[in-house]
Each structure stands twice: as structure tokens, then as C-alpha cells.
């Protein structure tokens, strides 16, 4: 996944979103506060920092919408690898293309 993440970062980072990668093997406390149950896991946010709400993905996609105790959507989680084309699709979904 890393080569695809680097390619996506180089082409899209800071246009409408920021891509951050964290190696939990080197930074064990990096996931504190996030419900990481497997590696790789991605948390996806819109440009304004709100949790991404998948619009153009089929029902049953591998996104988990996490809510707080009062039912407010707080995180969007994806477990497993995301490849370049997946990242572009998410990007386009976020910006409304």
C-alpha cells in the first residue's frame, strides 16, 4: 500500500485534503484515541475535518461509520489496504465529482 499512498500523496496532498501516514510499529502510541483493531486501518475526514460520509460507494463497502454515545458520527474507518485508485475514488467522492 505504501507506494500507492506515496503516489497519491504526491499528486493530491494539500489540494483538497491532507494525507498522513503513521507507522504504528515505530510509533505505538500514535493510535491512542482511535479504534484501531487491525493494520492497516485508515480514518478518513473531509476537508473541514468532519468524518467522511461515503456517497458513491455501494452498500456493504468496507467503511465503518463510528458514532459516539449520543449517536453523532465521529469517525469513518476503513480496515485493509487502500490502493491508488481507491484513494482517488474517495478523493473524488469528497470533492463531489
Strand content: 15-25%
Helix content: 10-25%
Strand order of the largest sheet: 1-3-2
Q: What separation lies between the terminal Cα atoms?
A: 24 Å
Query: Could you state the order of secondary-structure elements as H and E?
Result: HEEEH
What does the radius of gyration come to? 13 Å
How would you describe this structure in keywords?
24% helix, globular, 3-stranded antiparallel beta sheet, 3 strands, 97 residues, 15% strand, alpha+beta
Structure description:
By secondary structure, the chain is α+β, with helices and mostly antiparallel strands. The chain has one domain (2-22, 36-95). It is 24% helix and 15% strand. The protein has 2 helices and 3 strands; from the N terminus they run H-E-E-E-H. Strands 1-3-2 form a 3-stranded antiparallel sheet, with no helix packed on it. Strand 2 and strand 3 (73-79) form a beta hairpin. Helix 1 (2-12) runs parallel beside helix 2 (84-95). The longest helix has 12 residues, at 84-95. The two termini are 24 Å apart.
List the helices and strands and how they pair.
Layout: H1 2-12, E1 41-43, E2 63-67, E3 73-79, H2 84-95
Antiparallel strand pairs: 1-3, 2-3
Overview in brief:
The chain is α+β, with helices and mostly antiparallel strands and 97 residues long. It has helices at residues 2-12, 84-95, and strands spanning 41-43, 63-67, 73-79. The chain has one domain (2-22, 36-95).
Amino acid at each position: 500500500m505504501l507506494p500507492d499512498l506515496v503516489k497519491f500523496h504526491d499528486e493530491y496532498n494539500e489540494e483538497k485534503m491532507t494525507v498522513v501516514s503513521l507507522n504504528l510499529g515505530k510509533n505505538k502510541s500514535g493510535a491512542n484515541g482511535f479504534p484501531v483493531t487491525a493494520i492497516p486501518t485508515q480514518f478518513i475526514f473531509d476537508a473541514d475535518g468532519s468524518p467522511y460520509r461515503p456517497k458513491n460507494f455501494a452498500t456493504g463497502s468496507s467503511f465503518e461509520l463510528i458514532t459516539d454515545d449520543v449517536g453523532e458520527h465521529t469517525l469513518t474507518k476503513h480496515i485493509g489496504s487502500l490502493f491508488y485508485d481507491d484513494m482517488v475514488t474517495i478523493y473524488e467522492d469528497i470533492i463531489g465529482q
